[in-house]
Amino acid sequence: MKYRYTDKYIFVIMGLLILFALYLQYSISKSTEKLKNEEIEKTERYAERITNYIQSETNSTTLKSYLEAHPDKREALNKMLHAFLTKEIQYIFLLYKDDKGHYRFLLDGSLKDPVEYNTIFFPKSKLFDHVYQTQKPQIIKQSEGVEEIWLSLLYPMVKDNNTQALLVIDLSKAYGDYLNDFNSPIVYIVTLMQWFLLISFLFLVYLGYNFHRLRKSMLIDPLTSAYTKLYLKEFFDVKKVNQYNAMMIDIDRFKLINEKYGYETGDTILKLFTKEMLKLLPKESRVIHTGGSEFFVILEKSSADLKEMAEKVFEGLTKKRYLIDNETISLTISMSAMVIPEDVEYIGNIQRCLDEKLLEIKNRGKNGLGIIDNVSVTEVKYKNMDYIKETLEEERLTCVYQPIFDTKTQQIIKYEALVRLVDKEDPQKLIAPYYFLDMIKNTTQYIKMSKLVFKNVFHTLHMYPDIKISVNIDLCDLYNADMMKLITQELFKHKQNAHRLTFEILEDHEIKDYDMVALIFQQLKTFGSKIAIDDFGSGYANYIYLIKLDVDVLKIDGGLIKELLYYPERTKMMLNSIKVLADVYGYEVVAEFVSNKEIYDIVCELDIPYSQGYYLGEPKPIEEYMNKEQN
Predict the structure, then answer these.
(1) Is there a domain that residue 365 lies in?
(2) In degrees rounded to 5, what are phi and psi of residue 102?
(3) Is residue 218 situated within a structural domain?
(4) Which residues have a Cβ under 8 Å from the Cβ of 86 and sit 6 or more positions away?
(5) Structural domain for 134, as ranges
(6) What is the pTM of this model?
(7) Is residue 239's pLDDT more than 70?
(8) What is the pLDDT of residues 13-33, one digit of tens each?
């Protein structure tokens, strides 16, 4: 059940409960009515039997004449009527209508203070005359008759199509109240339930109203009136990501605007900026204020061409001028836009891609537009932090191994371990570090990855006791106490194989504390491991390393090796100088990126002892090389 629909479901359920309570009340009312009708039908049967009996006793003459002529019979019939008196029937008597239209008593079933024969009776209801004329039984309700009774049954006594008399049976008010109260406990409970449900419903309406206001404040940014990140999440709970394109827009140096003109002016600019953005975008677009001066925009693919729309928005927002308190303020923006691939299902992956592009634009000097229109689904998928985290938690990691050769003999002398993640859907597909390594740097996931790499490498060393392996590690990682603890523990745990391991040091930043680095290298070499400087001759990996640090191997930067194809003579001189220096100090030298025969021949000519590259051997599972050697 979606969270956004929970309140609607609650209201529906409450409505159904109220309807159920009303149905219960209706059912109880019908049950009581049915009970009353059954009593009335029973009374009608009594009346029919009484009239039949009286008529059988007076069959030879008219009823009035018979009763007038036989006082003893009248007395017997009065007693007979009395026998029908119960707690339900309060009165029972027989009336006739004289020549003047007055009703008079013929019989009275009351033994206590009975009404005398031929006493006049004044009915309060016109239904007496109606029954007398129509000769059909009729019920008189309490409001239409004597108030001490619940209702009266008028039953005509007909002979030769003439109404001779009316039998009146009065049901007691006490019995009527008893029938009404028969279901009263249930009625009381149902009534309480209805009140409870009604109060609960009103309370829910109140809560729903406040929740709606709160929800609106959570989905709509109160400052810019744009949507919030929560709205974006809920939007793509019901919409498909691949039906939209996306843009990310950030106002350059917005902090300076706040500092120069004040935060109130900054807020005003954000409001006006949002309004201007909405004017430039198609009507169906959604603008999300992701924080600060950054906005995320989604627009339907069918609404506009992304490139044209992005250029229109970029030009419109950069040309716009804002007049605030006699100050004309112009803005520059950094903006990225992306055509979302068809198979993408998670909008967070798109945001991350746009963030990377936006950072690239800012690093180039801001005020620029970058459009990503050929990104692959694979790239979007593999750069998803959640996907990487899940992969590492499930230990779907392996290492492939690229051989390092003796240049002259082309014999493998060592292997470089290269990390790969394993695709969840297709285990044969391996994910290169390009997609995930930068994302997990300086996180616990990086430590987890490194632990799995060392596990794989030491397992390989154990399985194949005649090989040597080098493994890459960033020097910055060695400054990390957790990483250093992991490495030293692994070296101690596998100290019998540590001498066959070489650490290839990657350096992205200039070393500032050589004494500390020297101490770290000493720790790594404690169990016989070697230190190799990767990408030597480029970036920060320079000759001062050789003066201040104790290293064993120099891996010449692939960029220098490639230059052999374009500036062969100068490059040869540079490589030769490195080799001479390595020979003097006893360093092993490896030429990386030997990608074709031409480069390989020059490396041989320069007498560089070791070579590595796709021309000689591609990264593969170690088993493939081992099986090949055995064959």
Answers:
(1) yes
(2) -95, 145
(3) no
(4) none
(5) 3-181
(6) 0.57
(7) yes
(8) 767 777 777 777 677 677 667
